[in-house]
Description:
By secondary structure, this protein is α/β, with parallel strands linked by helices. The chain is 35% helix and 14% strand. The chain has helices spanning 4-11, 32-35, 55-60, 67-76, 80-85, 103-115, 133-147, 182-185, and strands spanning 23-24, 27-28, 41-44, 121-125, 153-156, 161-164, 174-178.
Amino acid sequence: GAGQTTLLRALLGLVPADGGSMYWNGRRVEAPASFMIPPRCAYTPQVPRLFSETLRDNILLGVAARQDELDAALHTAVLHPDLAEMATGLETLVGPRGVRLSGGQIQRTAAARMLVRDPELLVCDDLSSALDVETERQLWERVVSWGNGAHHQAAAADHQTTTTFPDPPAHLRTCLVVSHRRAVLRRADR
């Protein structure tokens, strides 16, 4: 209702901005559409788009990620519990537009898609609107930790072992979040 999605789309150069300027680390960005792209930026819209492929293909979309990088993205996106319940795990066919997944699974798949690209800026438009309270809490706790450059460790439920994920990059990441949920907005530091 108040134009948050339009503002995000203008920031990303997906729609023309009526005025104003955008700066990245103190430098003016002249062409957002060619600047705000992977690997610098990753975006998930209100309604993430999935393709009639496997879960793995929908997350990677051609990115050559190492298994530990994929595992880190799956952990941060809180997808491991769901994968454990799927007969073919990451090889599960999601169907057209992800019809074989719940709304929350679609959103978390989109989150993993962003995270596996290891961008400097995550742009999330109502990323957790379809999640239950506990899964949403875990997701944002992990995304904030990821953004702060923290190590990821998770108990691998199927093996009862601890997996240490790749070292984070030296730089901190920024998360630009639009949400109507107070629990999400309370996590913002600015």
